[in-house]
Design brief:
single chain, alpha/beta, 4-stranded mixed sheet, 10 helices, globular
C-alpha cells in the first residue's frame, strides 16, 4: 500500500471569486466601451488563492471557509476543486460569495472592487479534526475572522504538531494593528506586504518593521515588497532576499503565490532564506499571466529553475 507523502495543509479564511479584465489603463466615461484582450474568472483570496497554488505544488489541501448560496458560490467551489483543492469544508451561507472585479493595467498593477460577503463567516464552523490532522495551518485574512477564533485555531494546530502562518487582506492603516499584532505569538510565519508591515508598526523602514513584528511575537517574518527584495526576520536577524525576476502581466495573485511557495519550502526543510526565494519563484510563475490559477508548474519545475539560476 502506497503512503501519501504529500504535506497535509489546511487553508482557512478568505475565498474570493475574481473577475479579471486585462488590460485596462483607463475607464471609459459615461456609457463608453472598451475592447480588452481578456476577461477571466479565477479562484482567489488569501486562503483560496494560496490553496490553489499549494495544490499545484503537490500538497494535499483542504480549504475551510464560506461562500454564498448564490450562483457564484458553486462556481468558486468548482474552480477550486478543479485545481485539486478539497472543498468539503467550504460551506454555503446566506451572505453573497466574496468577489472582486480587477481591472489590470498594462504594467500588471490594479485597483480592486471588492465585496467581503460570506468571508465574514469563514471561521464560524471550524473542522477541528482537520486542523489537528494537518502538518501546517494557514489562515488568510485573520482580521476578518475575530482574534479569539484565530488564536484558538492557531493554538490547536500547534498543540497537534502543525506549523502555522498568517497572510492578510487589510491595508497598512495603524488602526488595524490591534487586530493583527496579538496573533503573532501563536504564529510561525507572518507573511505581510511592505505597506502592511510599515503601517501596522508605524516604522520608517522595512528592517525596523520586521524587527517590530518579531518583537510582537512572530517567529519568522517574510515581507514582500513588489519588485524589490524580500525582507526576512528570524532569530533576531534581518536579511534581504533577492526576488526571482518575473515577466509581469497581473500582480493580483502574487502575494498568495509567494505565501504558498514559502510554506511548502519550509515544510520541505528549507531555511527561511531559501523559502523566500522559492516563494518568489512561485509567484513569478503566477504573475506571468492572468489570475491566481495561472501557470503550469510543479515543486520540481520551480526547484529546477532556482538551481539553474544559481549556476
Amino acid at each position: 500500500m502506497m503512503v501519501d507523502a504529500r504535506p497535509r495543509i489546511l487553508t482557512l479564511g478568505a475565498h474570493v471569486l475574481d473577475t479579471i479584465v486585462h488590460p485596462v489603463d483607463s475607464i471609459p466615461e459615461g456609457q463608453g466601451s472598451l475592447l480588452v484582450e481578456e476577461i477571466k474568472i479565477s479562484p482567489a483570496g488569501s486562503a483560496g488563492g494560496t490553496a490553489v497554488v499549494l495544490a499545484k505544488l503537490g500538497a494535499h489541501i483542504q480549504s475551510v471557509g464560506a461562500v454564498g448560496n448564490d450562483t457564484a458560490g458553486p462556481l468558486l467551489k468548482q474552480l477550486l476543486a478543479a485545481e485539486g483543492v478539497d472543498v468539503t469544508h467550504l460551506r454555503e451561507t446566506e451572505l453573497p460569495t466574496s468577489a472582486s472585479v480587477l481591472p489590470i493595467r498594462s504594467d500588471g498593477s490594479r485597483p480592486a472592487l471588492h465585496v467581503v460577503g460570506a468571508n465574514a463567516f469563514a471561521a464560524d464552523e471550524v473542522p477541528w479534526d482537520a486542523v489537528e490532522a494537518s502538518d501546517h495551518v494557514h489562515i488568510g485574512a485573520p482580521e476578518l475572522l475575530g482574534p479569539e477564533n484565530v488564536t484558538e485555531i492557531l493554538q490547536r494546530a500547534r498543540e497537534h504538531g502543525a506549523t502555522t502562518s498568517l497572510d492578510f487582506l487589510v491595508g497598512g492603516d495603524p488602526a488595524f494593528a490591534p487586530l493583527i499584532l496579538p496573533l503573532l505569538p501563536y504564529t510561525d510565519y507572518v507573511l505581510p506586504n511592505a505597506e502592511q508591515a510599515i503601517g501596522w508598526t508605524e516604522s520608517a523602514t522595512l528592517h525596523v518593521a520586521a524587527r517590530a513584528l518579531g518583537a510582537a511575537g512572530a517567529r519568522c517574518v517574510a515581507i514582500t515588497n513588489g519588485g524589490d527584495d524580500i525582507v526576512v526576520f528570524e532569530d533576531g536577524a534581518v536579511i534581504e532576499v533577492p526576488i526571482f525576476k518575473a515577466e509581469v502581466v497581473d500582480t493580483s495573485g502574487g502575494g498568495d503565490a509567494f505565501s504558498a511557495g514559502f510554506i511548502l519550502a519550509k515544510l520541505r526543510g528549507r531555511n527561511s532564506q531559501e523559502a523566500a526565494r522559492f516563494g518568489s519563484a512561485t509567484a513569478a510563475q503566477v504573475v506571468a499571466g492572468v489570475g491566481t490559477d495561472h501557470g503550469d508548474y510543479t515543486e520540481e519545475s520551480i526547484t529546477a529553475l532556482l538551481n539553474e539560476t544559481q549556476r
